[in-house]
């Protein structure tokens, strides 16, 4: 069950970060960090370290959420 939840979160991260694929975000340090945590989550998942993988992917989501909040803070 843990593996499936992490895989779901990884897929959601991939979907939520498509907007950051354009040139505007290429050198954004927070996005780079989120992607490193995403990569770490996949690595730990491959090692069956579900606890660490879950922490990494959720931290990555938090970083992306912070960027999205800042980017769209003027829109309601």
CATH superfamily: AF1782-like
Q: State the CATH class.
A: Mainly Alpha
Order of helices and strands: HHH
Radius of gyration (Å) = 13 Å
SS-based class: mainly alpha
What does this 3D model show about the protein?
The protein has helices at 2-16, 29-46, 50-71. It is mainly alpha-helical. Helix 1 (2-16) runs parallel beside helix 3 (50-71) and helix 2 packs antiparallel against helix 3. It is elongated, with a radius of gyration of 13 Å. The relative contact order is 0.19.
Quickly list its features:
mainly alpha; 76 residues; Substrate Binding Domain Of Dnak, Chain:A, Domain 2; single chain; 3 helices
Blueprint (SSEs and pairs):
Elements: H1 2-16, H2 29-46, H3 50-71
Précis, in short:
With 76 residues, the chain is mostly helical. 72% of the residues lie in helices and 0% in strands.
């Amino acid at each position: 069950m843990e593996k499936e939840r992490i895989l779901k979160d990884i897929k959601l991260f991939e979907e939520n970060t498509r907007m950051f694929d354009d040139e505007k975000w290429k050198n954004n340090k927070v996005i780079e960090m989120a992607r490193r945590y995403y990569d770490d989550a996949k690595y730990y998942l491959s090692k069956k370290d579900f606890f660490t993988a879950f922490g990494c992917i959720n931290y990555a989501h938090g970083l992306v959420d912070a960027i999205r909040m800042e980017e769209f803070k003027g829109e309601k």
